[in-house]
Amino acid sequence: MNKRFSKTIPALLFASALVASLAACSTGGAGGGSAYPERAITIVAPSGAGGGWDKTARSVAKVLSETKLVEKSITVENKPGGGGAVFMAEYATADAKNDYKLFVNSPPILINHNKKEGNSPYGYKDTTPLAQLTKDFGAVVVGADSPYNDLPSLLDAIKADPTSITVAGGSAPGSMDHLIAVLPAFKYGIDPKQVKYVSYDGGGEAIAALLGGSADVIATDVSGVGEYLKAGKVKVLGISAPERLVGELGELKTFKEQGVEAEFLIWRGVFGPKEMSDGAKTYWSEKLKALSDNEAWKAELQANAWESDYKDAEAFAAFLAEQDKLVQELLSALGMSK
């Protein structure tokens, strides 16, 4: 064999091994590459217990773990404050590269960024959208002993004396529950600023306020009141869906069929950090798609009165861009845009 050639072979092998080693190092990091995930994962619900974010995060974690779609342990954490704005400020800065912390969110990630009062400097562009999983709708809810049995009668009372009706929600003024509350009022000819709104950290606390007599009405997501409706503790005066739902909630009237031309979609999805590694993004794209197709997940949808509305990362990002424009238009119409 040629001596020069024989010396070249080991050198080439060494160089090849070095390149492979460097490539592996460059993708291993916080969570990329074929080794991801190497440790436990956290899914954050940026609210207190009992609301839509909390239930979504726990259902996702439960199905991923019980079906072994994800073999590493998954912990759900509640991070309440400002309708998700407090968590976003921390996440977008301290966890921008943390592949092991995901979170669930819905329209507030857009609303908080675009509203006039107490807006957040951070929005969906400070994250990596991974997948939309469900859609839900808003609901205007009163206690079982309330004198109001339909949406127009409640709105007439608010129009007559706005200070006499306390409306509660599980998010800050200008955030999602507040919009669900004031949108039908606005469409009914009521100045949205006149609606007496009190905020709580999560839908669970808002329902507790209603049942405890601290609020006359709550604005929330329809899926969060199913168990209270079955137990005869509340009445749903109207929902923000374009048409009636199917199944057990099919008797609930929409805003529109009561003469109030208002709709509001509550999508929910999973997000990662803005600088998420390619390996982690690919991993979660595959796992969340598999989750959406799994029978155990479909059972969770039914149990929580959620509708499946899966979008992959690319479609979800495009959808968010469209929704961001719609939220800006809605806030502007309500006089609440920044």
TrEMBL record:
One Pfam match: TctC
Record flagged with keyword Signal: yes
Alphabetized InterPro entries for the sequence: BUG (IPR005064), Bug_dom1 (IPR042100)
The keyword Signal is assigned to this record: yes
Swiss-Prot/TrEMBL keywords: Signal
Signal peptide positions on this chain: 1-30
Protein family membership: Belongs to the UPF0065 (bug) family.
Record's protein name: Tripartite tricarboxylate transporter substrate binding protein
Organism annotation: Paenibacillus antri
Organism ancestry: Bacteria, Bacillati, Bacillota, Bacilli, Bacillales
